[in-house]
What we know:
By secondary structure, this protein is α+β, with helices and mostly antiparallel strands. 46% of the residues lie in helices and 18% in strands. It has two domains: 4-142, no CATH class; 144-223, SH3 type barrels, CATH 2.30.30. The radius of gyration is 17 Å and the shape is globular.
Amino acid sequence: MLTGPLLFVRYAFMPNHLGYCGGDESQTMFEYAVGGEEDEGLRQLERQFEGACPYLQLIARANGIADPLDSRVVEAYWVGNRLLDRVDMGTFYASMQDRFKSRTRPQEWRWLACKAPAGARPHHSFHVFEVFPRIGMMRSGAADHLVETMENCCIRWGLVRAAMGPDLIVEVHPLLLGEGKLSLGPPRIESVKRRLNGQGFLDSVKAGEWVSIHWGWACDTLTWQQRTELERYTRWHIALCNQTL
């Protein structure tokens, strides 16, 4: 099993490479991920992810885990596990208030503030569907195509149909907007990247396996349980988003 920092970098690499979050050393992060070794230098790079780190700290504190980059905590944030359900609603609300209230207009904060009492969890999908559209955490013009951007930013699960050199052919559920509501559509086939300049994390993946996808990049293989948890938390936060969309 990967250590927490190595798991984190697999998910954080591509948005960092694209310039959306984190520091300016994506090549160094990639080398850590490909090499499979960590040190304090990697942890320092990961502390620059101002969007993700407070969620990791919140999950860790709520579960009595000293290290926010513990693998269980990292998995909880990106994929989902039962650690999320142990985060007290009041604590989550207070964290959101500290981070986001001053950065939103009163009307926007009113909608965001109701999410913790409604059952939101500190999962990456919550950040994608609720925080990003209201606050614009990303340092780019990607918000010009909001639904497409949310789909790319969300961690998706894909069933591998074929491995073709640097690409994987996967079956995924697209994010759709219809009649003012978000939903996951019927499965469709897409191509996602698994190698950059001949290197990647999933060289041995085979047809029939599940992988996680972030910004068109294959991050990690998923067990059936992990895939189930990822889908559960993603659909839950889509439903919560639709209440105030």
